[in-house]
Backbone:
């Protein structure tokens, strides 16, 4: 397939690498900042563009991997093309494309956190696909299957919940690691000592439900320990977070 | 060394296995419930007892691995012995032993979450040691070193913060996985799809600071996405948790 990427961020970068590796042609990379377009384009042998009017209208697939808030605007300025349009955003509905075209659009949502500095192993990244009709859906599913062994259909409504769950599973758990590190930093203890504990936390949820893996003072709401901990926390927001999560753990343990 | 264990829970179980494996003799296991004492004692070739008066007073080391709230009471009823007394609790001070004996006591705190159903690899579990004098400290450090490559001294005051940090790093991050799973359960999507995301979340913090690994809508406080997410959450406590953590992430990103 001949593919155009709109966007040059983490998702566009890793997804274009993966698609190129499995034999697709990345023909153009668009970014409103030419430098960013050039950086990615040079790595996937594509042409960089910063003017949406220069989009090649004969590609098979246009992948929109831009920030949620500029996605509608970019779609608005797209020229008419023959190929399919698909975005990669968890929280944006598929039908935003309907403002601009009658058919041939969908969503390819990879459930993963991408960093520029880390290689992504797409083979086990779950992809969630949506298409405006069975033909579009089929093409998007086959494209995703060329890079991942975990591809399924999901509509926009359910995808929003998936994105919400991902925020808890990734962003919020990561912030718990940040707060833990901060507590140790303040005491002059290296946060490195937490690594085996963090590894085991995750190793456990790979083989059992997180609810069943839960331990610690909040499970039985051990007020003495909880109060001792609250007394140690100086930051008021962190104190509130400790209290609320402890109550929630206890509620979920019943 | 000849070791007596007081307690038969997760920590006592895993720690006694590890100490036995490196050539120590576990001579007795005490539990107020004889059945529990028997279960562990049979696995480490020790004698089970449920009466603290039957404690063998000639052991080299007595390890108290019981719940925080019953620890002082058990110490209170201990007969005089020659060997060292040490507890394994993160939030309990070393000096609680001073109510009962003049010297020869300390703390051996392994920073890890233990489950009965999972084998523990002690070689990389960090141990934090405290002793009432250099001689006690030396013996406890050498004992810990016989099972772990990561042993250091830490006083009771700092150990409390370590325990607090562990609650964030393990209990609270695990609860974020629980809430994420719950959101998907309610939508009929298998929580299994979160596993690659959770794995990558932790793989990232093994090589970079969690603060620097942070991504998602809260980093730049993307109000549109955050409001959309809040609208999806039905449980009020979970909503508050979402709001507070998002604000905290944003504050830490500045």
Residues:
């Amino acid at each position: 397939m001949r593919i155009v990427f709109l966007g040059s961020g983490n998702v566009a970068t890793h997804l274009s690498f993966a698609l190129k590796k499995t034999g697709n042609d990345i023909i153009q990379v668009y970014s409103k900042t030419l430098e960013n377009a050039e950086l990615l384009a040079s790595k996937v042998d594509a042409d960089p563009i910063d003017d949406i009017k220069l989009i090649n209208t004969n590609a098979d697939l246009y992948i929109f991997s831009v920030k949620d808030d500029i996605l509608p605007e970019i779609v608005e300025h797209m020229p008419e093309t023959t190929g399919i349009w698909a975005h990669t955003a968890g929280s944006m509905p598929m039908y935003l494309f309907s403002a601009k075209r009658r058919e041939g659009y969908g969503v390819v949502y990879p459930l993963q956190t991408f960093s520029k500095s880390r290689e992504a192993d797409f083979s086990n990244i779950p992809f969630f696909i949506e298409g405006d009709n069975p033909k579009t859906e089929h093409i998007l599913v086959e494209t995703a299957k060329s890079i991942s062994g975990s591809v399924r259909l999901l509509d926009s409504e359910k995808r929003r919940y998936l994105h919400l769950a991902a925020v808890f599973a990734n962003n919020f758990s990561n912030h718990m690691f940040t707060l833990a590190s901060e507590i140790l930093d303040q005491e002059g203890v290296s946060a490195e000592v937490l690594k085996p504990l963090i590894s085991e936390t995750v190793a456990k949820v790979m083989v059992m439900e997180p609810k069943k893996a839960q331990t610690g003072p909040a499970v039985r709401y051990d007020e003495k320990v909880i109060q001792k901990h609250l007394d140690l926390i100086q930051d008021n927001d962190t104190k509130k977070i400790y209290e609320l999560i402890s109550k929630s753990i206890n509620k979920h343990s019943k």
